[in-house]
Amino acid sequence: MAEAKRGKRLTPEFLKQLRMKRVAVVHPNDADGSVLIQQLQRIGCQVQTFWPAPPELPENIDIVFCAVQPSARGSHADLTRRCESAVIIAIIGYENPTVFDEMLQLGASGVLTSPVRSTGVLAALVMTLGLNEELQSLRKRVVRLEQKLSSVNQVNDAKSILMRTRHVSDVEAYRIIREQAMSKRVAIEEIARAIIHANAILSSD
């Protein structure tokens, strides 16, 4: 299934969507910057250029290509404040702890090395967007699992309260919660929260 999803990203539909991406290029006006901008425009991306790095970028940006330079260390700290969902690709000319630290501070999920060549820009876009898509999917799955676990814990807590206060079994406690949910046409978790809340109020007296 994972292989099928990866293959799907390279279809013409994916490339069509890529052309709709709004890209910010935070890079000096030099040879690397020119090559990058020209290639992005060939791909069809909507490109905006910035240098020096502004305090923050427009909130509608989808992708940020950002030059990471030792001389500009710390200047990108709040760069993506208004576009937190943007995918960030760092452009580096050196490999050292200082550059790597700046990349991490920037939140980069992709890397493009200098000198920039036109043949590497699309590859960097495809790989970074693909990995970011998988990461977002995993994050959503984690949130769903956390919510499910929270619901299970709430139901268990509510059952424990009923077992203690009504002297019933685990099975009977769950039956009471389920029947209440069915009669009121609400989720079991909502009834469980109501039981927990009521118990907390009574216990505080």
Low-confidence segments: 1-8
Instruction: Please name the CATH topology of the largest domain.
Output: Rossmann fold
Note the total helix count. Answer: 7
H and E order: HHEHEEEHEHHH
Content of β-strand = 5-15%
Tally of strands? 5
Average pLDDT metric: 86
Euclidean distance between termini CA atoms: 55 Å
The description of the largest β-sheet is:
5 strands, parallel
Please, how many domains? 2
Identify the CATH homologous superfamily of the largest domain.
Response regulator
Sheet with the most strands: spatial strand order? 2-1-3-4-5
Helix/strand/pairing class, anyone? alpha/beta
CATH class of the largest domain: Alpha Beta
Give the CATH architecture of the largest domain.
3-Layer(aba) Sandwich
Provide a descriptive summary of the structure in words.
The chain is an alpha/beta fold and 205 residues long. It folds into two domains: 2-116, Response regulator (Rossmann fold), CATH 3.40.50; 141-203, Orthogonal Bundle (Arc Repressor Mutant, subunit A), CATH 1.10.10. It is built from seven helices and five strands, in the order H-H-E-H-E-E-E-H-E-H-H-H. Helix 5 packs across helix 6 (170-184). The model is unreliable at 1-8 (pLDDT under 50).
